[in-house]
Amino acid sequence: MKLKTGATLFATAMLAFVLAFALVGCGGDANDSAADGVTTYTIGVASPFTQGSVAQGQDIKRGAQLAIETFNDSDEARDAGIQFRMVEGDDMGDPKTAVTVANTLVSDSNLIGVVGHYNSGASIPASKVYSDAGVVMVSPGSTNPDLTRQGLPGVFRTCATDDLQGPAGAQYALDMGYTTAVVIDDSTPYGEGLATFFAEAFEELGGEVLMTEKTKDVDTDFNALATRISAENPDIVFYGGMYNAGALFSKQLTDAGVAAPVMGGDGIQEQDWIDLAGDAAEGDYATNVGAPIDSLPSARVFVEDYEDRFGEPAGTFSAFSYDAAMAIMKAAVEASAEVSSLTSPAGREALLDALENIRFDGVTGEISFDENGDTNNKIISLYRVEDGEWVFVDPASIQ
Amino acid sequence: MDIFIQQLVNGITLGGMYALIALGYTLVYGILLMINFAHAEMFMVGAYVGLFSLKFFSDPEWGAATLGLEGMQQFFTGSIFGLIIMFAIVFIFSGIVTGLLGMLIERVAYRPLRNAPRLAPLISAIGVSIFLQNAVLLWVDSRAIAFPNVFPVVNFGYGINSLKIFIVVTSIILLIGLDTLVSKTKMGKAMRATSQDRGAAQLMGININKVIAATFFIGPALGAVAGIFHGMYYGAVIFNMGFFPGIKAFTAAVLGGIGNLRGAMLGGFMLGIIESMTAGFISTGYKDVVAFAILIIVLIFRPGGLLGESVVEKV
Amino acid sequence: MRELIAERLKGVTAKPLFTAGKMTAAQKIGIALLVAAVIVAPILFQGFGQLFMIRIIAVIGLYIILALGLNIVVGYAGLLDFGRIAFYAVGAYVAMWVGIPLAGLLGETLEGWSYFLVLPIGGLVACVVGLLLGLPVMRLRGDYLAIVTLGFGEIVRICLTNNIFGITNGAAGLPGSGDSLAAPAGLAWLRRNVHFTIGNNFEFTFTSNIYWYFVIFALVALSILVIRNLDNSRLGRSWAAVREDEVAAQAMGVNTTVAKLYAFVIGAFFGGIAGVTFSYFQAFVSPESFTFLESVLVLAIVVIGGMGSIPGVIFGALAIQGIPEFIRGFASAGWFGNLSAETVSAISNYRYLVFGALMVFMMAVRPQGLIPQTRRARELLGEYDAIDGHELDAREPGDRANSTRGRA
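Output (structure tokens, whole complex):
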């Protein structure tokens, strides 16, 4: 039995070690207020980085990183004597990990806001943690309407909700004369929500949904489904999901002889869609939030800066994430004019107030939030693949 | 009827890939009685090696061309003859690289555990799988990469095209080749002996380390071929691409009777066809449910799988 | 044959761990320290603002319950199960289906007790599901059973995702908009009244994380008690017999199918109660939480800890669930010194790479697990060796020492 005794002792020793760490670890992390009067606050970025939708996670991280670097260099931040530091939280797209990440982030007493999460399934449970801790959260990618309708203060988002984007897509499709549709989703909360709202609106507005089906976000083989769709002969195929699986679907549709274009949401408007689907991408449609990016001067700068900084073109969610981080930082500057420390209860209250009333020109359009915390930027634009590029479709040209 | 034939073609193509991967599971299981969870990652690595070597030979903005070897690229992509040689090189190269990786993994992660409790190598394999996925994610790319579209695709109607024929025919040739290797050659005999009784095989003068190493070369090499097929057929590779095909192929191996080569082939094709038929005529969302339900039903009535011998307990 | 069985079952009568009255003084002190640490830890972490530690340890607790359940199936009865997460999912969804209307029925004053009422219901539903799956497949052996359970786990997850019968709300998860689970009884009172500060750096509030932390550890303690008694019962002995040699067990009059079924169903019960607790702790469930990888990780906990060993399960859970989270948490909380954001990010992103390598390493160093069950320590050494009794010589000195001690 000595072995067991040893184990118990070892366990105790380990716990003692952890506790000792806890005691030591909390000694010195008061505000990083340096002697020069500059206060540094932390902004968390929480998204999947090592599992799940890591590509979107990376876009989100880079968008926020660029925003923080840009803002730290701006006069606005210097004049206010505020700097921001980014801390990452890898939620792996998993709701349980997301709550752990949220708890980790709020353990940093300098944390004032979080950009994230990406998956709605991660955002919804994590939002409670942030709200309890008085930390504001701006999601750049969670489109499930329920997120901002839980009645929690401090929950915002810069992307459009599914119940906005789905119906807008349906309207565009009908305007272009597509009257029959097949609706496919990828069994993620995002894809499912988008597809459901599209299908509902499409039927309501007078279109006919020939078939709805579910696939998986990690599927690669859609041949059987594509063959089946070819027998239905729809005018348009709506895909609620992300570009990586969706592009393969679009390709296999074309291979199966389906001439109808694919339409999707913001998740497919990526260069990768065209790279992966090849010629099959031609004529595919995507809806996206906000005015087209090159119609705004701030957006053009963002697109260039992003490529300079990371050597890759910005993804859809980089822009939402950039705006989310900017909103938090701008609100922080505003609030800090009224209170001395944003990490005090009064400071957190002031930040929340400032964010609720924020208004500025972001890279996805004018950023401001409605009473739920959803973006007021409710313009949904339509894009189409032409000659291997996503091109803005002027609403006036389709009737 | 048209649609039915098309779905059958889809299923057979998918099944060919499953069968190739399933062979890797079944070979290892037959000899070591372990489920090699890392095999799915061999498939993924093979696809990546194939992708980069194919790019090297064919992408004018990548690889050989930047080294001043445009001529070579032109030769490879210019004619059917060149293409055949190029694909032969790509397949053999990535088969060898992945095979060697498989041997390395066996040496590092499994050999020390050969006499350990049965589940230890299984956990080790899961560790290898997590490691490899994250290695590719961190050091190669987190995004899907498009596979070079160099294979000339000619359509013959009924959903049949040259690529599908190529995949199915090559798969069948490899399956027959492996079957011959195991049943006819000296190496095959040694493999069969090792799988029957490792100790006795050793006493008969068989170098079991060599046999096991060979198994761990052949399985991953076939997995790599399946990986390249996967890339060519669907047009993309991504770091987590191995996971689901891996589970499916493992299912196929069990369906056919794990440890039995012909069973793995049968299981692979059956599973591919079941999946396509379900997705094509019943429901895409429930295709995996139907596939697994059929597996469970088959196992209830034939506990050793379709071609597996029913195990008689030796006392 | 008979001598062989007798030899093998010798370990069965070995003194069980933690049985009152039979412990050495050192063990008593050790356990007292452990219990004290478990109770004090959250108070310190909360007080010093290291909130994430409470959450991480509570999650580890959930995995301990899950793994204890699987340990019965894999460690005691020797059945390989890849679909454990299915029962976890059943428990979690039952909590939502039953817990929300139940809270409504109980009314405002009593709704807090809904968790405690749903807990056994979730466990029992999981048992029924386990029985329905177990009945037809129990005669499958080894890896065939593994793939069947894997398939079952996937079937459950896909059905949840596809909103089967319209009750799972698909990928979006439960509760749907407008619904929520009732806060557990007493939480509001504790939160209001248990609040104190010591000096400038220590501020303690009784949060819901702490509440669940204690609920989970009470469940862990209860589960350990129940399972230890089970292991030492007639049923536990029949499991050992089945695991060691099914035919021999049958010959000795053990109804192997029933014994296996018991293991499967009781294991499912623990999965179910862990699921119910998860649902309430998280206040949200969606199919994303119940992937095949989770089943695999729970299995890894059991094997890395040492099959059939309760302390092993606890250590396994610490290793599998704890290591990646601790690495990340410590790095971002600045415990490794003042690291740059890039370094923290790199540490965080490489944690699974390191974790994979560690799994391989742990198995190479200790294939029998961190704390193997004494009874099992011998069987692990291979059939042939065990028969002629030379098994110990084949191992490294360290293992030999452990095994010898185990025999004493």
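The beta strands of chain B are 145-146, 236-237.
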